[in-house]
Structures are given as C-alpha cells and as structure tokens.
Here is the input.
Amino acid sequence: MEKLVITPKTKIYDLLQSYPQLEDVLIGMAPQFKKLKNPVLRRTITKITTLNQAATIGGLNVEELVNTLRKEIGQENIRELSVTETQYQTDRPDWYSEKRVVNSIDIRDMLHAGEQPVHEVLSAIKKLGDGELLEVIAPFIPAPLIDKSLSLNCRHWLKKESDEKFVIYFGK
Here is the structure.
C-alpha cells in the first residue's frame, strides 16, 4: 500500500488513518487538537479539515506543522509551501450590528453528537437577506466552514470569546 504524502491539503482523517502515531504529535503542537481524542469529532470534522485549516485552528504556521509531521514519519521537508494563507476577519467590522442578527446556530451540540453542521449553516447563510447576519457559536475556529463561506463570497467576523467559544457572524 502506498503511504500518504503529507501536504497542507492532507485531511486530518486521512493523516491519522495512515499514521495513527501522529495524533500525539498533533496534540503536542496545539492544545486545541486534544479534541482529536473525541471519537465523534474524529469521525466527522477530521474528514473535511485539511492541515492548512488545522494550522489556523491551532494558531500554528502551516509549513512548520506539515514539516514536523513529515519529519516524524521520515518524509523530506517541503520548502516554499504553496499555501494561500486565509485571512480571517477578527476585528469588529463596520457592517456588524447586533440588531442585524436574524438567526443563531450553536454548532457545539451538533459536533458533540457527531453531526456535520456545514450544510445547516450554509443553508442559513443562503437564506439571509441584505444586511442580515447569521451568528454561529463554535467550540473552536471552524476553518472549513469559514473557508466554504468565503467561496460563496460571504463576509464574516470571527470573535473569540474564550478558548472553548468562538462566535462567527456571517453576512452576504
């Protein structure tokens, strides 16, 4: 069987299927990755999260993350990773107003139950009218969700309330 080559686009699920020993390396690099121990999150969110997105979630440099994992399993370092760094809006934007929030989805329970919140959130975003905002509450930075919303030309504001609570406001 051909072994997986680790790149920024590698999904966490595939990485851990091929190299289960890298779980401890990931957790050692960022405490947020302790959630990988949760079998429900392991079966769901890891299937859509790339190492590039995981680096964002963990507050890590993607090149450092990828090369640390590659070194651990004997793959050569990658120089000059061609990764488009996604810039998340973390400063309160002018367009935000609490009065404009028309819907709120807390995805923490959905994730805990093993459900994928992406479709529900994207459906709610598509229903927004001009100037209306959707509030999403998450236990970590939902990088795959934000990246998907960006591909739909949505604007967002990511607000960290605590290490276990992030609020993201989406608008068209």
